[in-house]
Amino acid sequence: MTETGPIVVFANFLSDLAVDLDEGQILTTWAQQAPRKAWLLRPGDVFVTPVPLSREFLRYVYDLTGVPPESVAVIEVPPAGAVPLARAVREAGLLEQVRALAGDRGAALLPTALDASAIAFARDIGIDVHPYPTVEAAEAALKTTMLLNTKTGFRETAEQLGMRLPEGRMCRRPEAEGVAREILRDHEGVVVKPDRSAGGHGMRFVSRDDLRGGAALLLDTVGGPEGLWVVEECLDVAESVSIQLEVTGSGTRALFSGAMRTVQGSFTGYASPLPPSCAHVAGELEEWGTALGRHLSDHGYAGPFGLDALVDTEGVAYASESNIRRTATTTPHAMVTRLTAGSATAHPAWAVSKGWTRTPMGFDWALARLRASRLAFDPDRGEGVVLYADVPPDGRSWRYAVIARSAGDVEEQETALAEVLEFEGG
User: Fold this and answer.
1) How distant, in Å, are the alpha carbons of 105, 211, 215, 322 from that of 207?
2) Angle between helices 330-340 and 55-65 (to 10 degrees)
3) What pLDDT shows up at residue 22?
4) What gap in Å lies between CA 168 and CA 272, rounded to an integer?
5) Using only C-alpha atoms, what is the Rg of the chain?
6) Residue 78 CB: number of other CB atoms within 10 A?
7) Which of 43, 199, 214, 225 sees the fewest Cβ atoms within 10 Å?
8) 237 or 345, which is more confident?
9) What is the pTM of this model?
10) What angle is formed at CA 343 by the lines to CA 328 and CA 47, rounded to 5 degrees?
11) How does DSSP classify residue 316?
Protein backbone atom coordinates (compact mmCIF):
# COMPACT_ATOMS: atom_id res chain seq x y z
CA MET A 1 0.00 0.00 0.00
CA THR A 2 1.44 3.34 -1.02
CA GLU A 3 -1.27 5.64 0.32
CA THR A 4 -0.29 8.07 3.05
CA GLY A 5 -3.67 8.20 4.76
CA PRO A 6 -4.45 5.92 7.69
CA ILE A 7 -5.96 2.50 7.10
CA VAL A 8 -8.42 0.56 9.26
CA VAL A 9 -7.17 -3.02 8.84
CA PHE A 10 -10.40 -5.00 9.20
CA ALA A 11 -9.73 -8.73 9.68
CA ASN A 12 -13.19 -9.95 8.71
CA PHE A 13 -12.37 -13.61 8.16
CA LEU A 14 -15.92 -14.34 9.36
CA SER A 15 -17.45 -13.47 5.99
CA ASP A 16 -19.97 -14.99 3.61
CA LEU A 17 -17.78 -14.10 0.62
CA ALA A 18 -16.27 -17.57 0.13
CA VAL A 19 -18.23 -19.82 2.50
CA ASP A 20 -21.75 -19.66 3.93
CA LEU A 21 -21.90 -18.26 7.46
CA ASP A 22 -23.59 -21.55 8.42
CA GLU A 23 -20.09 -23.05 8.21
CA GLY A 24 -19.32 -21.36 11.51
CA GLN A 25 -16.61 -23.70 12.79
CA ILE A 26 -14.37 -23.49 9.73
CA LEU A 27 -14.73 -19.69 9.64
CA THR A 28 -13.84 -19.41 13.32
CA THR A 29 -10.75 -21.57 12.67
CA TRP A 30 -9.69 -19.36 9.76
CA ALA A 31 -10.12 -16.28 11.94
CA GLN A 32 -7.24 -17.51 14.12
CA GLN A 33 -4.96 -16.25 11.33
CA ALA A 34 -6.03 -12.64 11.93
CA PRO A 35 -2.80 -11.68 13.80
CA ARG A 36 -0.85 -11.84 10.52
CA LYS A 37 -2.61 -8.61 9.47
CA ALA A 38 -0.40 -6.78 12.00
CA TRP A 39 2.36 -6.84 9.36
CA LEU A 40 0.34 -4.33 7.32
CA LEU A 41 0.23 -1.69 10.07
CA ARG A 42 1.88 1.71 9.63
CA PRO A 43 1.92 4.69 11.98
CA GLY A 44 -1.61 6.06 12.33
CA ASP A 45 -3.36 2.82 11.35
CA VAL A 46 -6.10 1.00 13.27
CA PHE A 47 -6.33 -2.80 13.51
CA VAL A 48 -9.73 -4.39 14.22
CA THR A 49 -9.17 -8.07 15.03
CA PRO A 50 -11.55 -10.89 16.03
CA VAL A 51 -8.85 -12.65 18.06
CA PRO A 52 -6.48 -11.28 20.70
CA LEU A 53 -2.81 -10.69 19.89
CA SER A 54 -0.08 -11.48 22.39
CA ARG A 55 2.06 -8.58 23.62
CA GLU A 56 5.15 -10.55 22.66
CA PHE A 57 3.97 -10.92 19.07
CA LEU A 58 3.06 -7.26 18.69
CA ARG A 59 6.44 -6.20 20.08
CA TYR A 60 8.11 -8.55 17.59
CA VAL A 61 6.12 -7.10 14.65
CA TYR A 62 6.81 -3.50 15.69
CA ASP A 63 10.53 -4.22 16.11
CA LEU A 64 10.85 -5.68 12.61
CA THR A 65 8.67 -3.10 10.85
CA GLY A 66 9.95 -0.09 12.79
CA VAL A 67 6.44 1.04 13.74
CA PRO A 68 6.23 2.89 17.10
CA PRO A 69 3.72 0.91 19.22
CA GLU A 70 2.02 4.08 20.44
CA SER A 71 1.32 5.17 16.83
CA VAL A 72 -1.20 2.42 16.08
CA ALA A 73 -4.44 1.29 17.72
CA VAL A 74 -5.32 -2.39 18.08
CA ILE A 75 -8.98 -3.11 18.85
CA GLU A 76 -9.61 -6.68 19.95
CA VAL A 77 -13.25 -7.65 19.44
CA PRO A 78 -14.67 -10.13 21.99
CA PRO A 79 -15.95 -13.45 20.58
CA ALA A 80 -19.53 -13.26 19.32
CA GLY A 81 -19.94 -16.62 17.62
CA ALA A 82 -20.11 -17.15 13.86
CA VAL A 83 -21.26 -13.62 13.00
CA PRO A 84 -19.62 -11.06 10.70
CA LEU A 85 -16.93 -8.97 12.39
CA ALA A 86 -18.92 -5.77 11.81
CA ARG A 87 -21.79 -7.17 13.87
CA ALA A 88 -19.41 -8.34 16.60
CA VAL A 89 -17.98 -4.80 16.80
CA ARG A 90 -21.47 -3.36 17.26
CA GLU A 91 -22.49 -5.97 19.83
CA ALA A 92 -19.33 -5.24 21.84
CA GLY A 93 -20.11 -1.51 21.86
CA LEU A 94 -16.88 -0.68 19.99
CA LEU A 95 -18.35 1.11 16.98
CA GLU A 96 -17.89 4.60 18.42
CA GLN A 97 -14.29 3.83 19.35
CA VAL A 98 -13.49 2.81 15.78
CA ARG A 99 -15.31 5.85 14.43
CA ALA A 100 -13.38 8.17 16.75
CA LEU A 101 -10.06 6.63 15.73
CA ALA A 102 -10.74 6.66 11.99
CA GLY A 103 -13.70 8.77 10.97
CA ASP A 104 -12.22 12.27 11.15
CA ARG A 105 -8.74 11.50 9.73
CA GLY A 106 -9.57 10.50 6.16
CA ALA A 107 -9.00 6.81 6.87
CA ALA A 108 -10.08 3.98 4.58
CA LEU A 109 -11.27 0.49 5.51
CA LEU A 110 -9.07 -2.41 4.35
CA PRO A 111 -11.22 -5.54 4.72
CA THR A 112 -9.89 -9.06 4.30
CA ALA A 113 -13.10 -9.81 2.38
CA LEU A 114 -15.11 -7.23 0.46
CA ASP A 115 -18.62 -8.18 1.52
CA ALA A 116 -21.90 -6.42 2.27
CA SER A 117 -21.28 -6.24 6.02
CA ALA A 118 -17.85 -4.60 5.52
CA ILE A 119 -19.38 -1.99 3.22
CA ALA A 120 -22.15 -1.28 5.72
CA PHE A 121 -19.50 -0.96 8.45
CA ALA A 122 -17.54 1.58 6.39
CA ARG A 123 -20.74 3.60 5.99
CA ASP A 124 -21.43 3.42 9.73
CA ILE A 125 -18.07 4.93 10.63
CA GLY A 126 -18.04 7.37 7.71
CA ILE A 127 -15.01 6.18 5.73
CA ASP A 128 -14.29 4.79 2.25
CA VAL A 129 -13.23 1.24 1.40
CA HIS A 130 -9.64 0.79 0.19
CA PRO A 131 -8.82 1.08 -2.72
CA TYR A 132 -12.16 2.43 -3.99
CA PRO A 133 -12.80 6.18 -4.32
CA THR A 134 -16.20 5.88 -2.60
CA VAL A 135 -18.25 3.38 -0.63
CA GLU A 136 -20.68 3.31 -3.55
CA ALA A 137 -17.90 2.24 -5.91
CA ALA A 138 -17.01 -0.64 -3.59
CA GLU A 139 -20.66 -1.66 -3.35
CA ALA A 140 -20.95 -1.70 -7.15
CA ALA A 141 -18.22 -4.36 -7.28
CA LEU A 142 -20.00 -6.69 -4.85
CA LYS A 143 -22.05 -8.70 -7.35
CA THR A 144 -19.02 -9.68 -9.43
CA THR A 145 -16.89 -10.27 -6.33
CA MET A 146 -19.43 -12.68 -4.88
CA LEU A 147 -19.94 -14.47 -8.21
CA LEU A 148 -16.25 -15.07 -8.92
CA ASN A 149 -15.64 -16.43 -5.44
CA THR A 150 -17.91 -19.33 -6.41
CA LYS A 151 -16.88 -22.41 -8.36
CA THR A 152 -19.75 -22.10 -10.84
CA GLY A 153 -19.23 -18.38 -11.41
CA PHE A 154 -15.55 -18.99 -12.06
CA ARG A 155 -16.13 -21.83 -14.54
CA GLU A 156 -18.60 -19.77 -16.56
CA THR A 157 -16.30 -16.73 -16.68
CA ALA A 158 -13.14 -18.77 -17.33
CA GLU A 159 -14.78 -20.46 -20.30
CA GLN A 160 -15.76 -17.06 -21.72
CA LEU A 161 -12.17 -15.84 -21.29
CA GLY A 162 -10.67 -18.86 -23.02
CA MET A 163 -8.98 -20.57 -20.09
CA ARG A 164 -8.30 -24.31 -20.21
CA LEU A 165 -10.49 -26.12 -17.66
CA PRO A 166 -10.82 -29.71 -16.44
CA GLU A 167 -13.82 -31.46 -17.96
CA GLY A 168 -16.73 -30.84 -15.61
CA ARG A 169 -20.32 -29.81 -15.01
CA MET A 170 -22.27 -27.66 -12.61
CA CYS A 171 -25.31 -29.15 -10.89
CA ARG A 172 -27.55 -29.07 -7.84
CA ARG A 173 -26.71 -31.28 -4.87
CA PRO A 174 -29.34 -34.01 -5.66
CA GLU A 175 -27.87 -34.34 -9.19
CA ALA A 176 -24.22 -34.56 -8.09
CA GLU A 177 -24.09 -38.35 -7.82
CA GLY A 178 -25.56 -38.86 -11.29
CA VAL A 179 -23.18 -36.33 -12.81
CA ALA A 180 -20.25 -37.96 -11.03
CA ARG A 181 -21.22 -41.37 -12.43
CA GLU A 182 -21.44 -39.92 -15.94
CA ILE A 183 -17.99 -38.33 -15.81
CA LEU A 184 -16.54 -41.48 -14.22
CA ARG A 185 -17.41 -43.38 -17.43
CA ASP A 186 -14.52 -41.56 -19.11
CA HIS A 187 -12.26 -40.82 -16.15
CA GLU A 188 -10.81 -42.80 -13.25
CA GLY A 189 -11.79 -40.21 -10.66
CA VAL A 190 -13.70 -36.99 -10.10
CA VAL A 191 -13.47 -34.05 -7.74
CA VAL A 192 -16.77 -32.88 -6.26
CA LYS A 193 -16.69 -29.27 -5.00
CA PRO A 194 -19.31 -27.18 -3.22
CA ASP A 195 -19.99 -23.93 -5.05
CA ARG A 196 -18.97 -21.69 -2.16
CA SER A 197 -15.85 -23.06 -0.56
CA ALA A 198 -12.27 -22.07 0.21
CA GLY A 199 -9.17 -23.95 1.29
CA GLY A 200 -10.61 -27.28 0.11
CA HIS A 201 -13.51 -27.17 2.59
CA GLY A 202 -16.21 -29.70 1.65
CA MET A 203 -14.30 -31.08 -1.35
CA ARG A 204 -14.53 -34.81 -2.13
CA PHE A 205 -12.28 -36.99 -4.29
CA VAL A 206 -14.29 -39.90 -5.70
CA SER A 207 -13.06 -42.90 -7.69
CA ARG A 208 -15.01 -45.42 -9.73
CA ASP A 209 -14.55 -47.96 -6.94
CA ASP A 210 -16.17 -45.58 -4.44
CA LEU A 211 -19.49 -45.77 -6.33
CA ARG A 212 -19.52 -49.47 -7.21
CA GLY A 213 -22.26 -51.78 -6.00
CA GLY A 214 -24.84 -49.04 -5.55
CA ALA A 215 -22.75 -47.08 -3.05
CA ALA A 216 -24.04 -43.54 -2.56
CA LEU A 217 -22.05 -40.35 -2.96
CA LEU A 218 -21.85 -38.84 0.52
CA LEU A 219 -21.33 -35.08 0.49
CA ASP A 220 -20.71 -32.51 3.19
CA THR A 221 -23.65 -30.38 4.33
CA VAL A 222 -22.13 -27.27 2.71
CA GLY A 223 -24.64 -25.21 0.72
CA GLY A 224 -27.81 -26.91 1.94
CA PRO A 225 -30.06 -29.52 0.27
CA GLU A 226 -30.34 -27.67 -3.07
CA GLY A 227 -26.90 -26.05 -3.15
CA LEU A 228 -24.80 -25.80 -6.31
CA TRP A 229 -21.85 -28.15 -6.83
CA VAL A 230 -19.18 -28.64 -9.49
CA VAL A 231 -18.10 -32.13 -10.55
CA GLU A 232 -14.81 -32.27 -12.48
CA GLU A 233 -12.46 -34.91 -13.78
CA CYS A 234 -9.67 -35.64 -11.31
CA LEU A 235 -6.45 -34.72 -13.07
CA ASP A 236 -3.14 -36.47 -12.50
CA VAL A 237 -1.71 -33.42 -10.75
CA ALA A 238 2.01 -32.68 -10.53
CA GLU A 239 1.69 -29.21 -8.95
CA SER A 240 -1.04 -26.91 -7.65
CA VAL A 241 -0.03 -23.37 -8.58
CA SER A 242 -1.38 -19.84 -8.36
CA ILE A 243 -0.71 -16.35 -9.56
CA GLN A 244 -1.65 -13.33 -7.48
CA LEU A 245 -2.50 -10.09 -9.24
CA GLU A 246 -3.91 -6.65 -8.53
CA VAL A 247 -6.44 -4.50 -10.37
CA THR A 248 -5.59 -0.79 -10.20
CA GLY A 249 -6.68 2.32 -12.07
CA SER A 250 -3.83 1.77 -14.53
CA GLY A 251 -4.66 -1.87 -15.28
CA THR A 252 -3.89 -5.35 -13.99
CA ARG A 253 -0.41 -6.29 -12.82
CA ALA A 254 1.00 -9.61 -11.68
CA LEU A 255 2.48 -9.52 -8.18
CA PHE A 256 3.89 -13.02 -7.67
CA SER A 257 3.29 -16.68 -8.41
CA GLY A 258 4.17 -19.93 -6.74
CA ALA A 259 3.22 -23.49 -5.87
CA MET A 260 0.61 -24.34 -3.27
CA ARG A 261 1.18 -27.04 -0.72
CA THR A 262 -1.96 -29.13 -0.40
CA VAL A 263 -3.20 -32.26 1.33
CA GLN A 264 -6.29 -33.80 -0.28
CA GLY A 265 -7.03 -30.50 -1.97
CA SER A 266 -6.74 -28.45 1.24
CA PHE A 267 -4.28 -25.54 1.34
CA THR A 268 -1.42 -26.02 3.82
CA GLY A 269 1.26 -23.67 2.51
CA TYR A 270 2.85 -21.86 -0.40
CA ALA A 271 6.28 -21.38 -1.97
CA SER A 272 7.32 -18.63 -4.38
CA PRO A 273 8.59 -18.43 -7.08
CA LEU A 274 7.25 -21.29 -9.21
CA PRO A 275 9.50 -24.36 -9.05
CA PRO A 276 11.51 -25.20 -12.20
CA SER A 277 9.21 -28.17 -12.92
CA CYS A 278 6.33 -25.83 -13.76
CA ALA A 279 8.03 -22.51 -14.47
CA HIS A 280 6.96 -22.96 -18.12
CA VAL A 281 3.32 -22.21 -17.22
CA ALA A 282 4.12 -18.75 -15.83
CA GLY A 283 3.29 -16.97 -19.09
CA GLU A 284 -0.04 -18.74 -19.48
CA LEU A 285 -0.97 -18.02 -15.86
CA GLU A 286 -0.22 -14.33 -16.34
CA GLU A 287 -2.20 -14.27 -19.58
CA TRP A 288 -5.23 -15.85 -17.88
CA GLY A 289 -4.88 -13.65 -14.80
CA THR A 290 -4.62 -10.48 -16.87
CA ALA A 291 -7.75 -11.41 -18.82
CA LEU A 292 -9.59 -12.05 -15.57
CA GLY A 293 -8.31 -8.73 -14.22
CA ARG A 294 -9.70 -6.88 -17.23
CA HIS A 295 -13.05 -8.60 -16.68
CA LEU A 296 -13.04 -7.64 -13.01
CA SER A 297 -12.10 -4.04 -13.80
CA ASP A 298 -14.92 -3.83 -16.36
CA HIS A 299 -17.30 -4.84 -13.55
CA GLY A 300 -15.97 -2.30 -11.05
CA TYR A 301 -13.57 -4.41 -8.98
CA ALA A 302 -10.28 -3.00 -7.68
CA GLY A 303 -7.67 -4.65 -5.47
CA PRO A 304 -5.89 -8.00 -5.16
CA PHE A 305 -7.08 -11.36 -6.46
CA GLY A 306 -5.69 -14.81 -7.12
CA LEU A 307 -6.06 -17.38 -9.88
CA ASP A 308 -5.37 -21.04 -9.04
CA ALA A 309 -4.42 -23.71 -11.52
CA LEU A 310 -3.40 -27.37 -11.67
CA VAL A 311 -0.41 -28.58 -13.66
CA ASP A 312 -0.75 -32.21 -14.72
CA THR A 313 2.06 -34.72 -15.14
CA GLU A 314 2.26 -33.81 -18.84
CA GLY A 315 3.04 -30.21 -17.86
CA VAL A 316 -0.31 -28.81 -19.02
CA ALA A 317 -2.00 -26.15 -16.87
CA TYR A 318 -5.74 -26.11 -16.12
CA ALA A 319 -7.44 -23.16 -14.41
CA SER A 320 -9.27 -24.30 -11.27
CA GLU A 321 -10.67 -21.31 -9.34
CA SER A 322 -10.37 -17.61 -8.60
CA ASN A 323 -10.18 -15.91 -5.21
CA ILE A 324 -11.37 -12.32 -5.54
CA ARG A 325 -10.17 -11.10 -2.17
CA ARG A 326 -7.05 -10.88 -0.04
CA THR A 327 -5.90 -14.49 -0.01
CA ALA A 328 -3.79 -16.57 2.39
CA THR A 329 -0.67 -15.32 0.59
CA THR A 330 -1.48 -11.61 0.03
CA THR A 331 -0.42 -10.41 3.48
CA PRO A 332 2.63 -12.74 3.77
CA HIS A 333 3.87 -11.42 0.41
CA ALA A 334 3.37 -7.82 1.59
CA MET A 335 5.31 -8.73 4.74
CA VAL A 336 8.17 -10.29 2.75
CA THR A 337 8.35 -7.25 0.46
CA ARG A 338 8.37 -4.90 3.43
CA LEU A 339 10.96 -6.78 5.47
CA THR A 340 13.41 -7.22 2.60
CA ALA A 341 13.21 -3.66 1.24
CA GLY A 342 16.72 -2.22 1.28
CA SER A 343 18.31 -5.51 2.39
CA ALA A 344 20.87 -7.69 0.63
CA THR A 345 18.06 -9.96 -0.59
CA ALA A 346 16.54 -7.98 -3.46
CA HIS A 347 14.26 -10.64 -5.02
CA PRO A 348 13.76 -13.25 -2.30
CA ALA A 349 12.37 -16.73 -2.53
CA TRP A 350 9.92 -17.41 0.29
CA ALA A 351 7.51 -19.95 1.69
CA VAL A 352 4.74 -20.04 4.25
CA SER A 353 3.71 -23.23 5.97
CA LYS A 354 2.75 -24.83 9.26
CA GLY A 355 4.56 -27.16 11.62
CA TRP A 356 3.46 -28.92 14.81
CA THR A 357 5.80 -28.88 17.80
CA ARG A 358 5.86 -31.97 19.99
CA THR A 359 4.98 -29.90 23.06
CA PRO A 360 3.31 -26.50 23.48
CA MET A 361 5.55 -23.44 23.76
CA GLY A 362 5.11 -19.70 24.17
CA PHE A 363 6.01 -17.05 21.60
CA ASP A 364 9.12 -15.76 23.34
CA TRP A 365 10.42 -19.30 23.87
CA ALA A 366 9.94 -20.22 20.20
CA LEU A 367 11.59 -16.97 19.10
CA ALA A 368 14.50 -17.51 21.50
CA ARG A 369 15.16 -20.90 19.91
CA LEU A 370 15.22 -19.35 16.46
CA ARG A 371 17.60 -16.62 17.57
CA ALA A 372 19.93 -19.03 19.35
CA SER A 373 20.19 -21.12 16.17
CA ARG A 374 20.62 -18.00 13.97
CA LEU A 375 17.46 -18.93 12.05
CA ALA A 376 15.45 -15.87 13.11
CA PHE A 377 14.88 -13.30 10.37
CA ASP A 378 17.81 -10.89 10.04
CA PRO A 379 16.78 -7.49 8.58
CA ASP A 380 20.31 -6.74 7.35
CA ARG A 381 20.62 -10.00 5.43
CA GLY A 382 16.94 -10.03 4.46
CA GLU A 383 16.77 -13.74 5.28
CA GLY A 384 15.44 -16.00 7.99
CA VAL A 385 12.34 -17.40 9.65
CA VAL A 386 9.41 -15.19 10.65
CA LEU A 387 6.73 -16.38 13.10
CA TYR A 388 4.15 -14.36 11.22
CA ALA A 389 0.86 -15.36 12.87
CA ASP A 390 1.49 -15.19 16.66
CA VAL A 391 1.47 -18.07 19.11
CA PRO A 392 -1.21 -20.62 18.07
CA PRO A 393 -4.11 -21.30 20.47
CA ASP A 394 -2.80 -24.82 21.11
CA GLY A 395 0.84 -23.67 21.42
CA ARG A 396 1.84 -26.33 18.88
CA SER A 397 0.52 -25.58 15.34
CA TRP A 398 2.94 -22.82 14.33
CA ARG A 399 2.56 -20.85 11.10
CA TYR A 400 5.85 -19.57 9.80
CA ALA A 401 7.44 -17.85 6.82
CA VAL A 402 10.93 -18.55 5.49
CA ILE A 403 12.66 -15.86 3.42
CA ALA A 404 15.92 -16.54 1.58
CA ARG A 405 17.87 -15.79 -1.59
CA SER A 406 16.89 -18.98 -3.38
CA ALA A 407 14.36 -21.80 -3.23
CA GLY A 408 17.17 -24.15 -2.20
CA ASP A 409 18.06 -21.89 0.73
CA VAL A 410 14.39 -21.79 1.76
CA GLU A 411 14.31 -25.59 1.80
CA GLU A 412 17.47 -25.78 3.90
CA GLN A 413 16.09 -23.30 6.44
CA GLU A 414 12.79 -25.19 6.67
CA THR A 415 14.68 -28.41 7.41
CA ALA A 416 16.69 -26.66 10.12
CA LEU A 417 13.54 -25.05 11.54
CA ALA A 418 11.86 -28.44 11.93
CA GLU A 419 14.82 -29.57 14.04
CA VAL A 420 15.10 -26.41 16.14
CA LEU A 421 11.41 -26.26 17.05
CA GLU A 422 11.16 -30.08 17.18
CA PHE A 423 8.33 -30.42 14.70
CA GLU A 424 6.58 -33.77 14.57
CA GLY A 425 8.07 -35.69 11.67
CA GLY A 426 10.95 -33.20 11.51
Assistant:
1) 57, 7, 12, 25
2) 50
3) 53
4) 29
5) 22
6) 12
7) 214
8) 237
9) 0.92
10) 40
11) -
Phi-psi region of 184 (alpha: psi -120 to 50; beta: other; left: phi over 0): alpha
DSSP class of 376: B
Distance CA 366, CA 357 (A): 10
Q: Identify the pLDDT of residue 367.
A: 98
pLDDT tens by residue, 318-334: 999 999 999 889 999 99
DSSP string, 233-290: E---EEEEEEEEEEEETTEEEEEEEEEEEEETTEEEEEEES--GGGGGGHHHHHHHHH
Cα separation, 23 vs 16, whole angstroms: 9
Phi, psi values for residue 221, rounded to 5°: -80, 0
Report how far residue 103's alpha carbon sits from residue 124's, in angstroms, rounded to the nearest whole number: 9
Cβ atoms of residues 396 and 357 within 8 Å: yes
Q: Rounded to an integer, what distance in angstroms lies between the CA atom of residue 383 and that of residue 379?
A: 7
Long-range contact set of residues 250-253: C-beta below 8 Å, sequence gap at least 24: 251/293, 251/297, 252/289, 252/290, 252/292, 252/293, 252/294, 252/296, 252/297
Q: Which residues have CB under 8 Å from 109's CB, separation 6+?
A: 7, 8, 10, 102, 118, 121, 122, 125, 127, 128, 129, 130
* pLDDT tens, position by position, 54-74: 999 999 999 999 999 999 999
Please name every residue paired with 389 in a beta bridge, in sequence order, or none if there are none: none
> In sequence order, what DSSP letters do the residues of 202-246 get, joined into one string?
T-EEEETGGGGGG------STT-TT-EEEEEE---EEEEEEEEEE
pLDDT for 81:
77
Report the C-alpha gap between 32 and 164 in whole angstroms.
35
Could you tell me which of 144, 103, 142 has the C-alpha nearest to residue 122?
Answer: 103
Report the C-alpha gap between 369 and 371 in whole angstroms: 5
Helices 151-160 and 282-298: angle between axes, nearest 10 degrees: 100
- The CA–CA distances, whole Å, from 172 to 143, 146, 152, 211 equal 21, 19, 11, 19
